Amino acid sequence: MQEESYPESRMKQNYDVIIIGGGAAGLMCAIQAGRRGRSVVVLEGSHRVGRKILISGGGRCNFTNKQVTPQDYVSGNPHFCKSALAQYTPEHFIAWVEEHHIDYYEKQHGQLFCRDSARDIIQLLQQECQLASVDIVTDVNVQNIIAKDSGYQLMADEQTMSCQSLVIATGGLSFPQIGATPFGYDIAKQFGLRIIPTTAALDGFQLDDELLVETATLKGVSLPVSITTNGHTCSEDLLFTHMGLSGPAALQASLYWQAGTAITIDCLPDQPAWDWFMEMKEHRGRALLKNLLSMLWPQRFAAWFCQYHQWSELSLNQISHHDLKNYAKQIHQWNITPTATVGYKKAEVTRGGVDTNELSSKTMEAKCAPGLYFIGEVVDVTGRLGGYNFQWAWSSGYVAGQVV
Ligand SMILES: Cc1cc2nc3c(=O)[nH]c(=O)nc-3n(C[C@H](O)[C@H](O)[C@H](O)COP(=O)(O)OP(=O)(O)OC[C@H]3O[C@@H](n4cnc5c(N)ncnc54)[C@H](O)[C@@H]3O)c2cc1C
């Protein structure tokens, strides 16, 4: 599929619907409203729409997940996402992708990716915007939003514009380098909506200087683990980096982590270490523990882990049962207290946002400001790694698009 540039629109003064933010949620909402015959404009602050889509999923956009449940999201109100997710499901989006002949594949755990490029999803959205006669204007600076008797008025690049419905789809704070701004939160506050404090999430962990020096030799090492934090267990690969802990397990765990608390890493999630020690004793009792462990782990990690925990350099037969019991425990319960998550520059999402108690879960309209809507990541609904955040953007954009 060739990428097309979207025909740049001249801004009109009056629209039925003005959508601020041309990301996944904003474009979905625009298409739905446009299909209903509403006059719609998307005002995008950066030089093009969908920039996050373009870089998502390593350039292949993990656009949804085959199995999406409310439990895949973190929110002050875990029930809030149910209505939108039920109204617009992964099956709906997949059907759309297929209608547009976009080739896709399941990577793992139901995660669906474009086979060629994330550009395919942007092109799908742009084509549908064109069919729905949606105006898109980029590089726009929006200011001075005020409520009028029936609708909203704002200034966009020195021009006054008005609309009946105003949709805020400006996303979260992650990746400021490609246009993320706190605009959505500021507008919410202006209209008296509460904000759940925001933090960077799906970004992994930073370690204190001491542990960072200790783990320096592990840079690039990856192994399957389970990380438990705040009552959630995330089982995937862990990657050691120059900043600390990354890889899907650490990214996933950073969504649930509360600052100042420890994470528990199970370095052998699929088998009890004690049983394995006993089994090894029968046939390989004269081998050194670190050599045995390198049958299960990357060699560098096995050597490092034994040294870090000051395990004796003895053969398995020479280590007491008491010590082996402790070693098994340390393998399954390695406790680390990260100093912080990695931060917004690397975070896939922002946890927190517009308090869901302030919005209708069926339409995303602000309860205290009729005609004002918040959709996508700006809302306090944050998905796990694996296509859930795009599904939330599609679903919340869709439901608002039915009523704006
Ligand atoms: C590197 C990376 C990879 C990711 N990969 C995946 C993935 O594979 N699968 C998945 O489900 N999720 C992924 N995510 C998360 C996903 O991209 C977001 O959750 C999703 O894009 C949110 O959609 P949105 O429309 O709410 O916000 P965004 O996509 O962030 O769109 C918001 C738009 O508003 C614009 N904007 C901001 N401020 C203003 C302003 N003041 N005026 C006008 N416009 C403004 C922005 O430029 C942007 O275009 C990834 C995120 C990152 C950073």
Q: What layout of secondary structure does this protein have?
A:
Layout: E1 14-20, H1 24-35, E2 40-43, H2 51-55, E3 62-65, E4 73-74, H3 81-87, H4 90-99, E5 104-106, E6 111-114, H5 119-131, E7 135-137, E8 142-148, E9 151-156, E10 159-168, H6 183-190, E11 195-201, E12 205-206, H7 209-214, E13 222-229, E14 232-240, E15 244-246, H8 247-256, E16 263-266, H9 273-284, H10 289-293, H11 299-308, H12 321-332, E17 334-336, E18 340-341, E19 349-354, E20 372-374, E21 382-383, H13 388-401
The protein binds flavin-adenine dinucleotide (FAD).
Kindly estimate the percentage of residues that lie in beta strands according to DSSP.
15-25%
Would you count the extended β strands for me? 21
Helix content: 25-40%
CATH topology of the largest domain: FAD/NAD(P)-binding domain
Overall geometry comes to elongated
Going by CATH, the homologous superfamily of the largest domain would be FAD/NAD(P)-binding domain
How many helices? Answer: 13
End-to-end separation: 32 Å
Sheet with the most strands, sense and barrel status: 7 strands, mixed
Radius of gyration: 25 Å
The assigned structural class equals: alpha+beta
Number of domains: 2
User: Which distinct ligands sit in these coordinates?
Assistant: flavin-adenine dinucleotide
CATH architecture of the largest domain: 3-Layer(bba) Sandwich
Uncertain residue segments: none
CATH class of the largest domain: Alpha Beta
Overall average pLDDT: 95
